[in-house]
């Protein structure tokens, strides 16, 4: 794809590749998150689901364990290998494919789709819309699409200029973040430093934050009939006091 915003390639190939492949809270939370996703998407038994980008299969494998037929797509071969290994070890039949999330080949193949764990907004506006349009094509009429993302409306509730967290405390691996928001581009830029014994990796990320109104307009242009905005992983609607947005969009029937 001809998008100049390619920060995510080196970011995931080294720095966040280490994070994804390390044990952490995101692994222990996946059963609860999968149950929440199942409910928000109103999944019927044996639903055909698209997880993009799927990473290490943290959610895709859990949804497969619940009886759904899941396809995971990611650009990164190393995390796809990890996802396949875990699926095999659990006796799960999950389809994993390497590919660009903006160039999905499927046409009306899935009952539902998800883009989870802050993986929306990587590109410029045109390419973000290209991704949503590709998902709309891949869904059956009436299919639902869930995204989990920070939103511009409530950014002050979650914004931290500097923070750090353990990636793997036993291994001495920790992650430092220095974050800034540009109100002109509505992009949040983070300088990440991964520190550990004999390890120091630094990378930048830049993510477009949309307001709920902007997302409503974008999703309608892409082929969705309506959206509903929820308060992150909590019960209830999204408000200015929310820390995170969980958005569900319905494709036109």
Which percent bin holds the helix content? Answer: 25-40%
The number of distinct β-strands equals: 11
Low-confidence runs: none
Into which percentage range does the β-strand content fall? 25-35%
Q: Ends: how far apart?
A: 30 Å
Strand order of the main beta sheet, please?
3-2-1-4-5-11-10
Pairing-aware structural class of the strands and helices? Answer: alpha/beta
Overall body shape: globular
Question: For the CA atoms, what is the radius of gyration?
Answer: 17 Å
Average pLDDT across residues? 92
Q: How would you sum up the major sheet?
A: 7 strands, mixed
Give the number of helices.
7
Order of helices and strands: HHHEHEHEEHEEEEEHEE
Please explain how this structure is put together.
Helix content is 28%, strand content 33%. It contains seven helices and eleven strands. The protein has a seven-stranded mixed β-sheet, sandwiched between helices. α6 crosses α7 (212-222).
Short description:
The protein has 253 residues and is an alpha/beta fold. It has seven helices and eleven strands.
List keywords for this structure.
253 residues; 7-stranded mixed β-sheet; 4-stranded antiparallel β-sheet; 7 helices; 28% helix
List the helices and strands and how they pair.
Layout: H1 8-20, H2 25-28, H3 30-40, E1 48-51, H4 60-65, E2 69-74, H5 77-89, E3 95-98, E4 110-115, H6 125-138, E5 139-149, E6 162-168, E7 173-182, E8 187-196, E9 199-208, H7 212-222, E10 224-231, E11 245-251
Parallel strand pairs: 1-2, 1-4, 2-3, 4-5
Antiparallel strand pairs: 5-11, 6-7, 7-8, 8-9, 10-11
